[in-house]
Amino acid sequence: MNASSKKPKKSIRRRDLPEYLPPSNPCFVKHFGTPFQTRRSSTNLPKAYVDGFQNFYGRDFIVTPDVLIPRPETEQIIDTVLSLAGQQYLPGVKPPKRQLPRSPVILDVGTGSGCIAITLALEIPEATIYATDVSESALRIATKNATKQGVNPHNFIISHLLDKVKGKQIPTPDIIVANLPYVDLEWDWLDKTALSKEPSIALYADDHGLALIKQLIDQASELQIKYLVLEADPCQHNSIVNYATTHGYNQTSINGFILSFHHS
What we know:
Layout: E1 20-21, H1 26-32, E2 37-38, H2 47-51, E3 53-56, E4 59-62, H3 75-84, E5 105-109, H4 115-123, E6 128-133, H5 136-148, E7 156-158, H6 163-166, E8 175-178, H7 192-195, H8 211-223, E9 227-231, H9 237-245, E10 249-255, E11 258-263
Parallel strand pairs: 5-6, 5-8, 6-7, 8-9
Antiparallel strand pairs: 1-2, 3-4, 9-11, 10-11
Helix pairs in contact: 3-4
């Protein structure tokens, strides 16, 4: 999936959207201060679903109850990949040394609305982007978003984690990005009612929320994928780092919710 020659104008990024209000996750507050959660309408439906769109990295993306609503903290996945690609993403800050190939193959696992994959296609036009999801309805929304943003959705593919990479339907990527389900149903601060309108398949995972992340690390290690960029709750970071280390991955950065790894 590559961006078309006509690149939509990028609007100002808004991390302080009024559509977000702080939840009561004590772990995140302890580490990073007040986080964000989706604002709800008078009908108790998330405002993004009522409006039909949500802003992500300065662009509006179509959202329906078939997909998770993009959160501001997920934007740091984009920043992390841009840094690895040697691109400037903060005004006045010198671009870091490039770690990825000049024309990297990037795979977004669990793409949902497609906001991560599409944003990367627009921000790194020389990259080849693949996006996978287990949900056909989610991929339909991602395809609509790609078309809206001027990105070719040819490489949007149904797949569970890296099954299509192992099956050779997708080339081995240089880097994997993933905002997989990581919410633990046993968290005592969890407001299940607030999340009840969003797809549970995109939110919850077994093994304290880490089941799918661990499966992805298993598969990525087997395929010797060089770079992983993952989102998870800060309370889960130590467990993920320890698990990734046993599979040959060294942690390279932590940025809010976002962890990045390099395979040794």
